[in-house]
Here is the input.
Amino acid sequence: MNFTVFPSPSTLAPENFLSTPGEALHQQNKSDFKTPLCDQRLDEAFWVVNGIIGVVILLGNSFTCTVFLSSSYSRRNYMNIYLLSLGVADISMAVLVVPGFAAFCSGCTYKWSEYCWFFGGARDISFSATVLNVLAITYDRYTAVVRPLHYASTMTNRKVFTILVAVWVTPLVVSSLRNIWFHSWSEEAVKKADTVYNAVLITIFVFLPLPVLFIVNLQIMRAIKSHGSRIHADMVERMHLSFQSSTIVTVTEPSTREFGNELVSNADLNVQNRRNISRRRKGTLSCVLVVFIFIISWLPRAFLNFCYLFGRRDLTSPMLIKLSLFLLFFQSSVNPAIYCFLRNDFRQAAKRLIKWR
Here is the structure.
């Protein structure tokens, strides 16, 4: 495959949403002008790495979506519906971003680089859909954990449907809007529009969500810890009262057996309650862990967008650009593993699905 380096940065059209120096969306013109943004060996190495992780994303998240859809309990659980939507966004990352944008639009210029405007639009759909899905998951868990008494009235079927529509329609609008003026306006008008448009989108989809997700999920963690402490104290007090009652009861033998059976029944009920609470906590913790990995993986990309927005391209490098994309793919690949390790209901549904197959 023949390759050429990127043309001079002064001849490039402004980058699109979430793009960085060294990434372009317009048709590339071959040039011998050498820039430090082109490294063919680096490109080839990340073709292999990104290709492998793309397969992992596709297989892992396809299996995850199948498990969620195969279980009637999972389909009735709003949290799982949001996780299913996130799985679809991760699959779109493997199908739309890895083989196109990551291969031909984030390094040297190749034959397929002339379609970077299309690959970039597909990337914007996947990236922004992932961000919005993570925000939706965080909102659902915040309502369930921090405001549990309001969850049933807040999270209704209509509310969930509205959120999911917004999560998927917004990326389509974001991706399409810029391409409308990119193919119809003059070059000067496109540059001016892109300057404002990119600044707004980077702020809305990168700079604002990351701190919001971090703060809200910290609140969720604190609420989980507080709930666990209260539940433990209630159980200790209940066992203490049961013990006191058993020591002062002086009744006939049949009544003693009946009271003992009641104590055993209460103990079994306490064990079952602890298991249910533990299962719900692990389900929420799995979502929180997904969000924290998402935040960490997006930090290099946020830094690159910061450099682009404030004109500090000198702080970037080809390796940093490649790693920022790789980390986004990595966070999409680890979600199925998190569900398997932390969620017993997911493991049981997966086992039933495998046995049925």
User: Anything to note?
Assistant: Residues 253-309 form the longest helix (57 residues).
